[in-house]
């Protein structure tokens, strides 16, 4: 299982996170069309490595930054890879 230690500098404060495959997959599975904020908050909290920063992270999430924080963690965790469809089955409309 892959794990990455990620430091996000948010408003001049460094926050330390550890994101692993299980946590990432749980986050993706929790997201629903009408619920993105709560899963983002839970993902950020689960990944935070310093509990002393919990209140500061919660303040940021209360200011509407939960999805941004989770997005930055996902971007840093996932590898940069290009995926391209080379051929489609005949009769496909894509």
TrEMBL record:
It holds the Pfam family Phage_TAC_10. It comes from the Bacteria. This is Tail assembly chaperone.
């Amino acid at each position: 299982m892959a794990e990455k230690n990620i430091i996000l500098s948010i408003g001049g404060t460094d926050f330390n996170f550890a994101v692993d495959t299980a946590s990432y997959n749980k986050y993706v599975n929790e997201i629903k069309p009408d619920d993105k904020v709560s899963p983002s908050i839970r993902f950020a909290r689960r990944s935070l490595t310093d509990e002393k920063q919990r209140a500061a992270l919660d303040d940021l999430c209360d200011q509407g930054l939960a999805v941004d924080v989770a997005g930055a963690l996902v971007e840093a965790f996932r590898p940069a890879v290009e995926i391209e469809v080379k051929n489609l089955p005949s009769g496909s409309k894509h």
